[in-house]
Amino acid sequence: MKKVKQKEYDFRNNLYLSVFVGVCQSKEILERYLQQYLTLLEIDCIGSQFGIDFHINYYDDEYYTAIVNTQRSNDIDEIFADAAVFDLNLLKQDYPNPLDSFYNAVIIIGRMKYEGEVLEIQNDEFGSFRFLGTYPEPLPNKIEDHAEMYQYAINKLVDWGYNISLTNENGWDEKDYFKWNAEKEGKIFTALDPLRLLGIVTIVQEYGDAWDRVEMPHALSIKPTEKK
User: Fold this and answer.
1) Average pLDDT per block of 10 residues along the chain, 228 residues long
2) What are the distances in angstroms from CA 21 to CA 79, 104, 120, 135, 193?
């Protein structure tokens, strides 16, 4: 693959995804088209043939979807049957259904808002591809506890002016435990992990230092819910 210097602009955007369709002979060929080479990225060159064609410097491999269907179609629902990772109604608002051409390949690049000038290409080795549009990334309806949240919790505490430290302390069972500390204006908060630390600080900010003496207006009864 030829070396092409990266462009000055960057399309990465965590709130959007970019949608492309095309005609490609196989999933293997499509994957090769999208494959990014670290050796090229390290010398400030565009990392993939797809990137060269559409002038895209880089995209996160973790957030793209690539599909090749067995049959070509111009029906949006059929084309995106195995790649419906966003609201297809948004696409149908921009394009008549059926589309004006037949496609069997779908490329959806997450965390990217493509705003380039290249809208359609013909690549003799990999196929033909067309940019359809950018759409908001779907947000989850359920947010679960995740280790990645630790850094966000630490950042928020730092934003609030707390000094964060990590100490090793001996617990009641005589085992050593890490303890997270947040210190500000002589007051120290401690917890077993950053999320709990953020929660403790938030409770005290809300109810004051005498938080444990505040009468709650009502008691909550929390019962397990049955999974549907």
Assistant:
1) 94 97 98 97 97 97 96 98 94 96 98 97 98 94 88 96 91 76 96 94 93 73 63
2) 9, 8, 10, 14, 45
* DSSP of 1-44: ----BPPS---EEEEEEEEEEEE-S-HHHHHHHH---HHHHTTT
pTM of the model: 0.77
The domain locations on the chain are 12-136, 149-208
Helix 194-207 × helix 149-159 angle, to 10°: 40
Is the domain spanning 149-208 CATH 3.30.70? The answer is no
Nearest to 59 by CA among 11, 7, 1: 11
Q: Which residues pair with 73 in a beta bridge?
A: 103
Structure tokens of 153?
């919790």
